[in-house]
Automatic annotation (TrEMBL):
Pfam families associated with the record: Usp (PF00582)
Domain UspA: 4-146, 176-300
CDD domains reported for this sequence: USP-E_repeat1, USP-E_repeat2
Localisation: Cytoplasm
Protein family (similarity comment): Belongs to the universal stress protein A family.
SUPFAM superfamilies given in the database record: Adenine nucleotide alpha hydrolases-like (SSF52402)
Keywords of this entry: Cytoplasm
Keyword Cytoplasm attributed: yes
Organism of origin: Hafnia paralvei
Protein name listed in UniProt: Universal stress protein E
GO cellular component: cytoplasm
């Protein structure tokens, strides 16, 4: 957890209450580190004012940036007075997710925190919201914060993939557990649990193959997942009662176990799919997030490269 020292908080411009900032302060007060409160703003009407000179438009932009900076400073006033190190940064950029990821890359941040908004399932397919862009493309871990306090005696729940169909799952599982153990140790000694979901028997197979025994199939699949979970927990010296292998879809199993355990955060890996496969199939993180009543921490595998690049022309103003 010592590496989560440089935190970026994406400020929500539409409300005075900032759950992501509260969570960042909570982490810094327990682990040390510093926070940057970041906001990307843009008003198309300023770009359409042809009667104004470029200098006048620049001056108007800076006026808006200064106003929003003062507003964020007021949101942070209590924390600043308490000695929490918070830097405020506001930029003019017409694509918020790009501005945030560019800041993550240029500032070499360890963790991005953002308030999680509920999204309509259809909307998340047709109109890809900023949250989904960040989950797919942000190179550092993304902490999606729900508007609720950290539960007393809560747990951190790590969702692992035990199917071993792809070679990247095993190292990603290890990375998730390792980082979560560090997190749990430093945040009020939160206990850590692991959860894995295994699929139910496909109905069409049972119908098409008369000799097929669904119970034998289910037992075999469950056995494979239990063995994989045992190997994973033993690698980290975890107790068996802290692991959960359940039948069903991840987006159903993970939120159910999280609620049962009163989890403060669910940690899972996201592979950063883009394009058609992401839009219509989606990542587990994206299916899970709207069903969770707690925070979600999404971590990329080692070697992940963000498709977002820094701007070459430095055309975006900031303060």
């Amino acid at each position: 957890m010592a590496k989560y020292q440089n935190l970026l908080v994406a400020i929500d411009p539409n409300q005075d209450d900032q759950p992501a900032l509260r969570r960042a302060v909570y982490l810094v007060q327990r682990n040390g580190g510093r926070i940057t409160a970041f906001l990307s703003i843009y008003d198309f009407s300023y770009e359409m004012t042809t009667l104004l000179s470029p200098d006048e438009r620049m001056s108007m932009r800076q006026g808006v940036i200064s106003q929003r900076s003062a507003w964020i400073k007021e949101q942070c006033r209590y924390y600043l007075e308490a000695g929490v190190p918070i830097e405020i940064k506001v930029v003019w950029h017409n694509r918020p997710f790009e501005a945030i990821i560019q800041e993550v890359i240029s500032g070499k941040y360890d963790l991005l925190l953002k308030m999680a908004h509920q999204h309509d399932r259809l909307e998340s397919v047709i109109f890809t919201p900023t949250d989904w862009h960040l989950l797919r493309k942000c190179p550092c871990p993304v902490w999606m914060v729900k508007d609720q306090p950290w539960p007393q005696n809560g747990t951190a729940l790590v969702a692992v993939n035990l199917s071993s169909e792809e070679p990247y799952h095993d190292p990603l599982n290890i990375k998730l557990v390792k980082e979560s153990l560090e997190l749990a140790e430093h945040v009020d000694h939160t206990s850590l649990h692991l959860v894995g979901a295994y699929p139910v028997t496909p109905i069409n197979i049972a119908i098409e193959l008369p000799d097929f025994d669904p119970s034998i199939y289910n037992d075999a699949i469950r056995g494979q997942h239990l063995l994989a979970m045992k190997a994973l927990r033993q690698k980290f010296g975890m107790k068996e009662e802290c692991t959960h292998v359940e039948k069903g879809l991840p987006e159903e199993v993970i939120p159910d176990v999280a609620e049962h355990l009163n989890a403060g955060v669910v940690v899972l890996g996201t592979l950063g799919r883009t394009g058609i496969s992401a839009a219509f199939i989606g990542n587990t993180a994206e299916h899970v997030i709207d069903h969770l009543k707690c925070d979600l921490l999404a971590i990329k595998p080692d070697g992940f490269q963000s498709p977002v690049e820094l701007d070459d022309d430095d055309e975006h103003d900031d303060e």
